[in-house]
Write a structure and sequence with these properties.
By secondary structure, the chain is α/β, with parallel strands linked by helices. Helices cover about 35% and strands about 30% of the residues. The C terminus is likely disordered.
Length: about 375
């Protein structure tokens, strides 16, 4: 059977691509290995800017509305910054993904529950092999996540990624999130509301024992610890790490490393990339990769500047924590709502960072001087 496009993966990137292609009149097949709705490990936090990328009918999916955030340091210090608007929303990923696929089906896409095995080029088309039969297509879209078979067959490898653990348990945060830094070398710990409960998780690129850290944190905060599950979050360090595909085999979402290197946010970029990818195919059917790369520039720029901020913030976590109260958190809220970009806050934040770093070094020198006279060691 011949399709205009076969999309591998029924997550946000795949569903978004399928939705926009089908809406434009193309015949699209989504290949998803698990029956929907299926469990998906994810905190389910949508930044407010994500809403403009969603089809109608999403409001019933929202479990919690976020208008306040707490930033903590090693579980010892924390402060809260409130805003007078909604900055994020919590959804259940299994229901959210199911909703997106259903919206794609409503505009004409087809769904096959089966495993993608591989592909090969035959003339001007691609033969796609699945556990449920073989299909021909003009375009093959790999939106099959971190362990992307499509990306692997194109010769791509994952270079940079967060290791993550998460569990769902009892608790109540209602309309706020808590981000804790200082627990791992490059990453953070979070406590998010999730309906009537909470999600507790941690992510890092380092080699720390995440299970031990998460258990210790839960114990210190009287959180009922349940065995967590783990997953990987790929991100780009530079433009070359955004792997868009080759010829008419294209990638989007985690398959292409399109995740925020600072916060690990992936849903927004997956939906955005799917929309761009569909537009590239429709507007330049003979050279979609070239069009896709050109149209992706704003998205790629956001990820690259998020990476620049991440390298500074995770290198100087105590300074980043202190910046949060009077500068960083409010500006990150503006990024989440779409009022600012990471590029905006990167350049404007340099002066603030240098000011706080200088202050921190002065405090360190003074403490060290006092320590020499008292016999106490100071830490920076």
């Amino acid at each position: 059977m011949l399709y205009d496009a076969v999309v591998v993966g029924g997550g946000p990137a795949g569903a978004s691509t399928a939705y926009h292609l089908s809406k434009s009149g193309l015949r699209v097949l989504i290949v998803e290995k698990e029956k929907l709705p299926r469990f998906k490990l994810c905190a389910g936090c949508l930044s407010a800017r994500t809403l403009r990328l969603l089809p109608e009918g999403y409001k019933g999916l929202i479990l919690n509305t976020i208008n306040s955030g707490k930033l903590g340091y090693r579980g010892l210090q924390e402060y809260e910054v409130e805003v007078n608007r909604e900055v994020a929303y919590i959804v259940d990923r299994s229901e959210f993904d199911h909703f997106l696929v259903q919206k794609a089906l409503e505009v004409g896409a087809e769904l096959l529950i089966g495993e993608f095995i591989g592909f090969e080029k035959e003339g001007n088309q691609y033969k796609v092999y699945t556990s449920r039969g073989n299909f021909y297509t003009d375009y093959l879209i790999g939106a099959d996540g971190f362990h992307s078979k499509t990306a692997e067959l194109l010769g791509y490898k994952k270079r940079k990624f967060f290791r993550s653990l998460e569990l769902f348990t009892e608790g109540s945060l209602r309309d706020k999130v808590l981000i804790e830094v200082g627990w791992v070398s490059r990453g953070y710990l979070w406590v998010f509301p999730h309906g009537d409960g909470i999600s507790l998780g941690i992510a890092t690129t380092g080699r720390e024992n995440l299970l031990e850290i998460l258990r210790d944190y839960a114990l210190s905060k009287n959180i009922n610890f349940k065995h967590p599950k783990g997953w990987h979050i790929p991100f780009p360090e530079g433009k070359k790490d955004i792997q868009i595909g080759k010829e008419r085999v294209l990638l989007a979402g985690d398959s292409a490393n399109m995740t925020d290197p600072l916060l690990g946010e992936g849903i927004y970029y997956a939906l955005w990339a799917g929309k761009i990818l569909a537009k590239a195919i429709i507007q330049n059917p003979s050279e979609p990769t070239k069009a896709y790369e050109l149209m992706l520039k704003p998205l790629a720029e956001e990820l690259i500047y998020a990476g620049k901020i991440a390298r500074i913030a995770y290198r100087f976590q105590r300074v980043a924590f202190k910046m949060g109260k009077d500068y960083a958190l409010r500006n990150f809220y503006r990024v989440l709502t779409g009022d600012k970009t990471y590029k905006d806050i990167y350049w404007k934040g340099w002066l603030e960072f240098l000011k706080h770093l200088t202050r921190e070094k002065i405090e360190y020198i003074l403490k060290r001087h006092e320590g020499r006279h008292s016999g106490v060691n100071a830490e920076f």
